[in-house]
Structure formats: structure tokens, C-alpha cells
From TrEMBL:
InterPro entries: GLR_AS, Glutathione-S-Trfase_C-like, Glutathione-S-Trfase_C_sf, Glutathione_S-Trfase, Glutathione_S-Trfase_N, GST_Omega/HSP26, PCD_sf, Pterin_deHydtase. It comes from Silvanigrella paludirubra. It comes from the Bacteria. This is 4a-hydroxytetrahydrobiopterin dehydratase. It holds the Pfam family GST_N_2.
Amino acid sequence: MKIYSIPFCPFCYRVKLALHEKKIPKDLIEIEEIDLKNPPKDFIEINPNLTVPTLQIKGNDGFAESMIIVEYLNNLNTNTPNLYGNSNEEIAKNKVLIERISSEIIPALLGCFYANGSEVKFRKSLQKLPMVFEKLEELLEKINAPFFGGSSLNAVDICFAPFICYYLVANEFNSKIILPNSNTKAFNYFKNIQNHSYINELILSNEKFKNDTKEELIIDTEGTKYIKSSSRNLIKDIEEEVKILNERISLKNKGNKAILWKTNKNEKGPYIETTVQFKHYDEAIHAIQVICDLQETSDHHSHFVLENFNQIKVEVCTHQPTWGVTAMDIAFAETLSDSLK
């Protein structure tokens, strides 16, 4: 038999932890790390969805889904403790815990990884953390041991531990990603996972895992990096710069309708502007969210007005120390056009 896996995947780590806890020999089940961009033929035949982990039993016979594979592995070696429990009641309760952790705890805990460059989404994910820790505290209320499985990992711990590892590494790199309060069972549980010898060996001591996790946490997208790295010096020939800007935007849109910019002026000085039209109200609301996210993430601001719920007028310029248009304004305009197209 064979497990198809990829490096640093939390779902694959579940299966690897189960193999270790069940003491399943390597000559019985091989682990093959694959490249999902160039997957093996057998893997494709077993799992056309190309998700990992996938268990190959023989030939093109097998199945995917990490916790289903864990349950299968649990039944391979009956000489080791049952990962789900020793009675029907215990098995059922542990499966309920797995479901609650998978649906209520893990997605909220890892919300910071799903911000996709949005400072607003990142902050919202941080605001949910105290509630997540309260839910975990509730689940741990009757547990008077290091793990849900007692002194060793069970299926609940195996389900949860890889994601806690991601979170612990995230906490190392960003202090805004807080840990549970130190006087709670949730905090102790995190620490017990962190100090588990095999989890350390498999996951937490791997520097590449840490670096890859750090990369996933970086809020700055290429667009926000472009804005932040642009000059704050005033542009002398704004018309020419806007012409070049529109050429770049048009080229990227390859003949499709593009969001282009023009120059304008008021009593205070020049600025650049665009008007974006929408067919539906929800498109306008989405555009407002995009503009707000870009402003928060790039720390660069614009003035925008929603008109009749079917178009937004956006004005960009620099107010201080002197009114005008800078390369940073041009970069903001280009990034906004790319984001709203």
C-alpha cells in the first residue's frame, strides 16, 4: 500500500501521525511525496480530484480524505490502542469532537492564513480568536490529561495537531496572532502539542515548514508592495504618466474593458480619477470592500463616492506636504484597476 502526500500539508500530517501512533511498519505502507503539477498516473486514476492524502491499496484501488484514511489505518493494527476509543459511546463522542473541531475551531483558528492580502480580513480573523479559544476550552473541560487521547494522541488530537502547529509557527512570526490565556486548558493543550516529541520531529523542527508558513502569512501582495515601494515625489508631467499608466492597464486587459484613469484639477491642485460602473448593487459593494482593503493594506488613501449604487468615482492624489500626484498615486491607481477588473 502507498500514501500519496505532499510536503507540509496538514491533512497529510494527520495520516503520518496516525501511522506513527498505530506503529504501522514502513514496509507495509510506503509514503510517496508527489508533485501535484505532475502527478503519478496511479494517483490520478485513484483520485481524479488530485487531493492529498490519497491511499493506494492496490493498482487503481484506493481513496482520499485524511480522516477516512486515519480510520482505515486505525483498523490495520489492532495490537495498538484504538485511536477512536474502546466503546461505541467513546467512538461516537470522539467523532463528534472531530466534527466540531473541523467545522468550528480549525477554520476560525486559521483565518489569518486566508486573508489573501487583505488587512481588513486579517484583522477580522484576529477578532474571532478569543471566541475560538472559548470553544476549545469548552471541549477540553472534561479532559484531565495532556491530550484528548489521554497520555498519547488519539484521532481527535491527530485531526487537530497539524493545524495547531501552523498556528504556533504563525504566532512566532506575528505577535498579533495570540495564544490562549496562559491559565487555561486551551493554552496547556497547545503547549502539549508543541512539546510532543514526534510532532516536533515531524513538523515543528522543520525549518522549511516554518519558512513556508511564514510566506503564507505575509499580508503584502505584489500590488501593495508595488505601492509601498513607489516614490512619494511629485510628478511633473501628470498627463504623460497617466497616458503610460493607461497603456499598461490596457495591455494587461488584452482588449477587454479596462478601468482607465484621467487627470483633473480643483482649487487645491491636480489629481487623477476614474469612474467604475456596475450592473448590480452587490458588485458596487464588492468594489468598496476592494478599495477599503487596498487602502488599509497599502497605507495609501483615496477619495471615493458611490453614486446611485451603480458607479463609483475614485480620486487619487497626495495632500502632504504638497498637493499633487506622485508615483505612489499612479501605483495605487494601477493596482486598483487590476483589482477591480
